[in-house]
Design brief:
Elements (H helix, E strand, L loop, with lengths): L3 E5 L2 H8 L6 E5 L5 E2 L7 E2 L5 E2 L2 E2 L4 H12 L3 E4 L5 H14 L16 H9 L6 H28 L8 H19 L4 E10 L6 E9 L2 E2 L5 H11 L4 E13 L7 H12 L3 H13 L1 E3 L3 E3 L14 H14 L34 H4 L5 H16 L5 E12 L2 E12 L29 E13 L8 H11 L7 H10 L3 E4 L2 E4 L1 H13 L6 H15 L5 H22 L9 E5 L6 E7 L2 E5 L9 E2 L3 E6 L6 E6 L5 E5 L8 E2 L2 E7 L6 E4 L6 E4 L7 E3 L1
Parallel strand pairs: 1-2, 1-7
Antiparallel strand pairs: 3-6, 4-5, 8-9, 8-16, 9-10, 9-15, 11-14, 11-16, 12-13, 14-15, 17-18, 19-20, 20-21, 21-22, 23-24, 24-25, 25-26, 27-28, 28-29, 29-30
Helix pairs in contact: 3-5, 5-16, 5-17, 6-14, 6-15, 8-12, 8-13, 9-12
């Protein structure tokens, strides 16, 4: 019988760890937290040092009984929950419930779930870190006070089901403030002039941009100014004034941390933050790989450290030398500096074994896990590769008094870019045309001059990627909070998605205005960022958590009383749809429920009609001639299915084409999902396809 008990959070993690330890170890899962604050009440004793009142989570009684029984029968208990504040708190709660002395060396942590890491951790147990636990308690208590004290005011003054939160409210305000910037933006006119030139020798044409006059940059703001320039250019000769050539290096991006992984997965894979973290969690906890057993494929995915172990760097460099050649390997390993505010307890996110390539694992992973693993693996290997090298050419051209500029670049050595190039949030407008060989004094042939009118653009709305970047830069939240924060503000109906953009709803704006008027500190970026620093100082053992709560609560209580007294009832109108209620004839309205938006009759309670939102595609089902509707899977992924489901089983991930049918067989055409960029026939017996 096992004499040692190891407790982790998840069954997947338990399964992976079990195979690394011998028969003398039993591994059990707590399924996350086993104890928490009660949902039905505040659960914090305000009068007695903000003491939390923890209770066993409903439904965890039987599990806890099994853990207690196993603990009594074991000589040694190891608490092996995740290596962060939340994981430390789960271990502390388990120690309390199982009667383990928290000063006893019962806590083990590992940054990756591999045989070596797990076995090393077992040999180096430590006591539960109370500073880490207190930092988690402080965050939990703060968030509970803010949520449970402000939310009832919103229910009473606006409508039921609303919530406020310490991090969610400031995040929502960022999105609302950006919308205000866009609405207040005043576009400014500007003009561009381009000259199409050639060298007269090789007759290679290129484009030069108008820069200014007599060496000074000029911004053209109206057509009159443009016409004056064009008139003077009619008789001007275009002559090369100077040619500057330089070699430019581009270094690889550092390995992923939580925020950059979430941003890149959004940009390159179109993943939501929630989807990214779910796939990362599965990769971390372990996957059955043929020939290797169950393996944890990546290091811990909640981290803001860029540190990489020497062993991992050596492994990556050996792989690069072997697979790409020595010219792709820098003379010394690349070391990335972590920013000062980061917690350096973990490594960056990397594969646990570089030899387990994405191609090797494709059959063992789900599509989401494969795409994310490929992203992590390529980014990590690339971060240790040689820089890319470009030959850059910048040319100044005189046309009378005016100056035009042209630039070109040519890849000399791809370096890390043979494997990986980081995505960007902005559209790349750089012109990197290949220029002909030019020298100072060369007279150029002008084949034409074009002028175009433009207007300055407002700042773009946030996407999940740019929002996470902003939260990180402003010091709001921590790696573990980004995903739940974005999920909360969208599920509550404060923010909606327009393709990738995050747009505040009327409800979101109303709640943000209330928070700004009565709880300015809660939605203040500097205040929230400073609170994060204070939570970090608790973790470092420099501050007492109860003192921080006490300092916060006094002014907060005054704001609560003021809001309760002064705030008038606010009516937020429901968005009206064009769907007619078949029971009473009213136009149905959009409501927000547990599972997102739905249609409801505004005549409630007299008329209780409600139904899901149906998105028609206009296409006809090839099996039963029913309507094809846009639907969502349980994981939120868009697909298309017949309205007569379950009687008709037609479904597809590809977008049905409603405007035309197959010219070969008359069947339904589908626009392929992903990067295929083509239209195909849905019939298995028809091979028709055309490129888009």
């Amino acid at each position: 019988m096992a004499s040692n008990l190891v407790i982790v959070e998840s069954p997947a993690k338990a399964k992976t760890i079990k195979q690394y330890l011998g028969k003398s170890y039993s591994v059990m899962a707590s399924f996350g937290h086993v104890r928490d604050l009660p949902k039905s009440q505040l659960g914090i004793d305000i009068e007695h040092n903000f003491e939390p009142k923890y209770i066993t989570i409903r439904g965890k009684g039987d599990l806890l009984a099994k853990l207690k029984k196993a603990a009594k029968e074991s000589k040694k208990i190891y608490l092996a929950t995740d290596p962060d504040r939340e994981g430390e708190a789960i271990s502390w709660h388990l120690a309390q419930l199982l009667g383990i002395d928290e000063t006893e060396k019962c806590r083990i942590t590992f940054n990756e779930i591999t045989k070596t890491a797990v076995k090393n951790a077992i040999t180096e147990p430590r006591a539960v870190d109370r500073d880490l636990v207190d930092a988690q308690q402080a965050r939990r208590v703060l968030d509970r006070i803010v949520g449970y004290k402000i939310s009832p005011i919103l229910w009473k003054k606006v409508k039921k089901g609303l919530s406020a939160g310490r991090v969610q409210s400031v995040t929502c305000k960022l999105i609302c403030d950006r919308e205000q910037e866009i609405e207040n933006f005043v576009a400014e006119e500007y003009w561009l002039i381009e000259a199409k030139l050639s060298d007269g020798k090789a007759k290679v044409s290129f484009v030069a941009d108008f820069y200014g006059k007599n060496g000074k940059k000029i911004k053209l703001t109206n057509q009159t100014e443009v016409e004056k320039v064009l008139a003077n250019l009619q008789s001007a000769d275009f002559v090369v004034d100077s040619v500057k050539e330089a070699e430019k290096k581009r270094n690889p991006s550092p390995p992923f941390i939580t925020s950059t992984l979430q941003q890149e997965a959004s940009r390159k894979l179109g993943f939501t933050v929630k989807r990214t973290m779910l796939a990362a969690q599965n990769l971390y906890e372990g996957v059955a790989v043929p020939g290797h057993g169950t393996v944890g494929l990546i290091t811990y995915m909640r981290t803001d450290s860029l540190r990489i172990s020497k062993e991992a760097v050596a492994e990556a460099r050996a792989y690069i030398g072997e697979q790409f050649g020595k010219e792709y390997l820098p003379h010394t390993a690349r070391i990335y500096k972590t920013r000062n505010t980061a917690q350096d307890a973990h490594e960056a996110i990397r594969p646990t074994d570089v030899s387990l390539t994405p191609a090797l694992l494709k059959g063992a992973l789900t599509p989401d896990m494969y795409k994310l693993y490929k992203l992590i693996w390529e980014r990590f290997v690339a971060c240790q590769m040689e820089s890319a090298v470009y030959n850059m050419v910048n040319v100044d051209i005189h046309a009378g008094q005016y100056v035009f500029k042209a630039s070109g670049s040519q890849m000399k050595f791809k370096g890390f870019m043979v494997l990986y190039v980081e995505g960007t949030d902005e559209e790349n407008t750089e012109k990197n045309a290949k220029l002909p060989p030019l020298s100072a004094g060369d007279k150029l042939i002008c084949a034409g001059i074009e002028n175009t009118q433009h207007f300055t653009q407002p700042p773009p709305r946030y996407t999940e990627a740019t929002l996470i970047k902003a939260l990180e830069e402003k010091g709001i939240g921590r790696p573990s909070t980004y995903a739940p924060t974005i999920t909360t503000i969208t599920s509550r109906g404060y923010v909606s998605r327009d393709k990738k953009q995050l747009v505040p709803t009327e409800l979101g704006q109303v709640v943000t205005d209330i928070m700004s008027d009565y709880f300015a500190n809660i939605v203040d970026v500097a205040f929230t960022a400073n609170m994060e620093k204070e939570l970090d100082s608790i973790e470092d053992g420099d501050m007492d958590w109860m003192n921080i709560i006490r300092k916060f609560y006094g002014p907060f209580q005054e704001h609560l009383q003021k809001a309760e007294k002064e705030l008038d009832k606010i009516k937020v109108a429901d968005e009206v749809s064009d769907v007619i209620c078949e029971k009473c004839g009213r136009n149905m309205v959009y409501k927000m429920g547990r599972f997102g938006k739905f249609l409801a009759c505004p005549g409630f309670p007299e008329c209780r009609n409600a139904k899901p939102i149906v998105k028609e595609t206009g296409a006809i089902c090839p099996k039963c001639k029913g309507r094809i509707l846009e639907k969502k899977s349980q994981r939120g992924k868009k697909y298309f299915g017949c309205e007569n489901n379950p009687r008709c089983d037609f479904m597809t991930w590809d977008t049905p084409v409603a405007t035309e049918t197959c010219p070969k067989c008359g069947g339904l055409l589908l626009k392929k999902a992903g990067k295929a960029k083509k239209i195909v026939c849905s019939s298995e017996n028809c091979e028709y396809e055309k490129k888009l």
